[in-house]
Specification:
This protein has 453 residues and is α/β, with parallel strands linked by helices. The protein contains 20 helices and 16 strands.
């Protein structure tokens, strides 16, 4: 355990010195106080990791010390030392916020054991608080990247939806960030301290889907060796996000509909219903109305899920957001790869904004990562971007001669090698070039035969 700052308060100097010696040998920084009023006066929040205080002292007793320190910093653990521990005293101390009580006389090992437990507990509280703060930042609406009118209108609606405990259906093409919106709704809702569980309905085999979602009793079917709680039970009190809801089989849709009506379900093989408190957020990249017409999706379930509809526009309809998202992903990847790419060059930014991005935000993120992997300049160049997406140079007024020439050569080399089945010698003959020139240009543009063929 890393060194911690510990305050010891006891009007018995000998005991203070003994405890300080034991704890300093463990590597901790210790300061002792024989005057409890001086200790309380000098106590400041976020400085100390632990306070150890005697309960019977002149001027200010341990209970008063405990109350004043807790009033200043509620989370800090306090160990109370007493020579006359009673059940009533212990209960009173714990109610006032003491972490533990230590009865005199005690052995050094017992002191170390109690101190380690208190510090471990405090570290867990700190880590949990840090994690909660990180989640709040990550899923804060201001942290969802974009300045386009379409996105801002959506976020205004999301803010209102978050505090209303109702079913939400998020629609939009694949890669538009539907799960991010679902997480933002959860982490800005009254359920934020409870679980958020996400599941892709298209990734679970139909044969096990009911068991995964709702659980089963032991012996309900071959292989059911133990009772299993499903994801609905695991999300009790929190939010369950069902992505690609259109992939649910009809028999599961029926069970889901009953849950939405009654807030209960029955595990496979169970004779009793299980009641849970779960908010359901679902998402789809398909048109569920057409699935209803085909008979593959229940109309009554659709209306239960679609109480609030949030439609995420595709990236091609959010052109002002593309440079912002690209810059965000460049910062992320620089941290990941320890690189120092400054951003997109002007002509690259223009080309990225004009591209249709059929894979939406997910595709943009992957392309930025790929570009950073091979980029040798300070900015991502147009020639680098052109290796991962198709760029129409005829519509770009910002493409300079060198960039246009590079784009032509990249396209020409791709077609040349493809027509020669990757044979460099044959490609050189077709082009009237020597093999060394072909290899040099392939290296210049970071092209690999396996990526072309």
């Amino acid at each position: 355990m890393a060194a911690k700052k510990i305050m010891i308060i006891d009007d018995e100097e000998g005991l203070c010195r003994m405890m300080a010696t034991i704890l300093m040998e463990e590597g901790h920084a210790v300061r002792t106080f024989n005057d409890p009023q001086e200790a309380v006066a000098l106590f400041r929040p976020n400085i100390w990791d632990l306070v150890i205080s005697d309960i019977k002292m002149a001027g200010l007793n341990g209970m008063e010390v405990l109350q004043r320190i807790k009033a200043c910093e509620a989370q800090i653990p306090v160990i109370i030392i007493t020579a006359f521990a009673t059940v009533e005293m212990s209960i009173q101390a714990l109610r006032k916020g003491a972490y533990d009580m230590l009865t005199k006389p005690f052995e050094p090992d017992e002191l170390l054991f109690r101190v380690r437990n208190a510090l471990n507990h405090n570290q867990l509280l700190t880590e949990n608080q840090k994690l909660r703060q990180e989640l709040e930042v990550k899923f804060n609406f201001d942290n969802i990247i974009g300045a386009s009118t379409a996105l801002q209108h959506l976020l205004d609606k999301v803010k209102k939806v978050s505090i209303r405990d109702t079913s939400v259906l998020i629609s939009g093409e694949s890669g538009t960030g539907k799960e991010l919106i679902a997480q933002a709704i959860h982490h800005n809702s009254p359920r934020k301290e409870q679980p958020f569980i996400a599941i892709n309905c298209g990734s679970i085999p139909e044969s096990v889907m009911e068991s995964e979602l709702f659980g089963h009793k032991k012996g309900a079917f071959t292989g059911a060796d133990t009772d299993k709680e499903g994801l609905f039970k695991a999300a009790d009190g929190g939010t369950l996000f069902l992505d690609e809801i259109g992939n649910l089989p009809l028999n599961i849709q029926k069970t889901l509909l009953r849950f939405l009506q009654e807030q209960e379900f029955r595990r496979i093989g169970d004779t009793h219903s299980t009641k849970v408190d779960v908010r359901l957020i679902s998402a789809t990249n398909s048109e569920l109305e057409k699935e209803i017409e085909k008979g593959s999706f229940r109309e009554d379930l659709y209306y239960r899920l679609n109480v609030i509809n949030l439609h995420l526009p595709p990236l091609r309809q959010r052109k002002p957001d593309i440079p912002l998202l690209a810059a965000h992903f460049i910062v992320e990847q620089n941290k990941k790869f320890q690189t120092s790419i400054k951003g997109l060059s002007p002509e690259t930014q223009h080309a990225a904004s004009e591209y249709s991005w059929p894979g939406n935000i997910r595709q943009l993120k992957n392309v930025i990562e790929a570009c950073i992997t091979i980029e040798t300049e300070k900015q991502i160049s147009l020639t680098t971007l052109a290796q991962f997406i198709e760029i129409d140079t005829t519509s770009s007024d910002n493409t300079d001669y060198n960039s246009a020439l590079a784009l032509f050569e990249i396209d020409y080399l791709r077609q040349l090698l493809s027509s020669a089945d990757g044979n460099i010698e044959e490609a050189a003959k077709k082009a009237g070039m020597n093999m060394a020139t072909i290899y040099r240009k392939l290296k210049k543009y970071g092209l690999r035969k396996q990526d072309i063929l």
